[in-house]
Specification:
By secondary structure, the protein is of the alpha+beta class. The protein contains 14 helices and ten strands. A hairpin with a 2-residue loop joins strand 2 and strand 3. Helix 10 packs across helix 12.
């Protein structure tokens, strides 16, 4: 063990001396390794961070949940003309009520209607670009809402269509200055409809895929929102969450049968509704990010191959420059394995130095990532371990031939060489 540490120390010292003696040559040779490691870390870190943010937003739409809509969120494929979607009937509140009775696999069933780009006013101030959501009782069980101040909608609010709303953080901040002041205020909505603010939603932050965007939204009872807009003109969607022990396929099968029965479709008629599976979106997103990762790896491998030749070139030159020293070491008893290990370690240390250069650039970029990309890029410990491992492997591969040449040298010939 002591001998191993001596070899490590000697190799590290020689690597540092080589760098100090030939800074430009070493830096240029290490640029390939640095770029390769930069590609690996930056792509993996960015993709992992983006996937985490996207998956988080997808899960926020509701786990084990199906959205029943006239539109297919995945596009329906190229073989399904868009005009067929337009002709489909909108999901209806009455259908939601029947689904609750017909679908045994359902844990929660809710209805949601929405409007975007709306206005909310208080006295002489107004905020535009607000999302209105009219929801039913079980919506909160599928899509949790965190209330910071005040209260959430209650059963009585739904039953009587009370003119009350829960307001998003950014809307409240823009309209009242201090979000906390919103609770208890009477505001004006679409068509001058008056509503009492009963609760403030906790700040959510930005969403990568859009999602519910509660910060810029208000929530109100479904029956109250119907006083401002027709149900069919407000993007109605039925949300069905399956029971914990029920597989998604079973839930989809029951929903398909129930919807066809409710709409009295004949066996030969195709579905006039879409079942949009949130879990399927999650798998689809994972496949996309997997493809991006493969592309990043392809670029990184090419860069690392170029970097490996650069490091090998340094090691060939180093072996030639140190030939007399190698001969002297072998003459006083150094074994082949010792010479081989020293040069392999030196090659590995050179690659690690290149990797550190690439890592430093990635760290600088992560500082700017939130402002530019809209989400925080983090570098996990697994990625760092992978980068160091790759540096060591590339270093060993780049140095194996020069180190073998050095280990096989005849001590007498080596000492006499100039």
């Amino acid at each position: 063990m002591r001998r191993l540490f001596e070899i490590l120390g000697s190799s590290l010292n020689l690597t540092w001396q080589e760098f100090k003696s030939h800074k430009i040559r070493t830096l240029l040779s290490l640029s390939g390794v640095a770029f390769g490691i930069f590609c690996i870390i930056s792509v993996l870190a960015a993709v992992d961070s983006l996937e985490y943010a996207v998956q988080k937003d997808i899960k926020a739409l509701g786990s084990n949940t199906v959205y029943i809509d006239k539109w297919d969120y995945a596009g329906g494929g190229n073989d399904y003309p868009w005009w067929k979607y337009v002709k489909r009937p909108e999901p209806a509140f009455a259908e939601m009520k029947m689904l609750k009775k017909k679908v045994n696999a359902a844990k929660n069933v809710a209805m949601n209607i929405s409007l975007s780009g709306e206005k909310i006013e208080f006295e002489r101030d107004a905020v535009t670009g607000v999302n209105y959501y009219g929801i039913t009782e079980e919506f909160v069980n599928i899509q949790p809402v965190d209330i910071q101040i005040g209260r959430y909608l209650q059963d009585a609010d739904y039953d009587y269509g009370a003119n009350v709303i829960v307001i998003g953080y950014v809307v409240a901040e823009t309209l009242f200055g201090r979000p906390e002041k919103a609770v208890g205020k009477m505001v004006r909505l679409r068509g001058g409809k008056r509503a009492l603010v009963i609760g403030l939603i906790k700040k959510q932050g930005k969403s990568i895929i859009g999602g519910w965007e509660y910060d810029n939204s208000i929530l109100m009872p479904f029956t109250f929102m119907k006083q401002m807009v027709r149900e069919k003109a407000a993007n109605p969607v039925i949300m069905v969450q399956g029971k914990d022990e029920v597989p998604m396929e079973q839930l989809r099968d029951e929903l398909t049968g129930a919807m066809r029965s409710i709409r009295k479709l004949k066996p030969t008629e195709e579905d006039d509704f879409s079942l949009n599976d949130i879990d399927a979106f999650s798998s689809f997103a994972s496949d996309i990010f997997s493809g991006i990762n493969k592309g990043g790896w392809a670029i990184a491998v090419l860069s690392l191959i170029v970097g490996m030749f650069g490091v090998a070139n340094i090691m060939f030159v180093t072996v030639r420059e140190r030939t007399p020293q190698i001969g002297l070491k072998k003459a006083i008893g150094a074994k082949r394995a010792t010479i081989l290990t020293e040069f392999l370690l030196e090659s590995a240390f050179l690659c690690i130095m290149g990797g550190l250069l690439g890592l430093a650039v990635v760290f600088l970029l992560t500082i700017l990532s939130e402002a530019v990309l809209g989400f925080t890029v983090f570098i996990s410990l697994n990625i760092l371990v992978l980068a160091v491992s790759i540096c060591i492997i590339v270093g060993v591969l780049a140095g194996i031939i020069p180190a073998s040449i050095a280990a096989r040298m005849d001590p007498v010939v080596a000492i006499r060489s100039k």
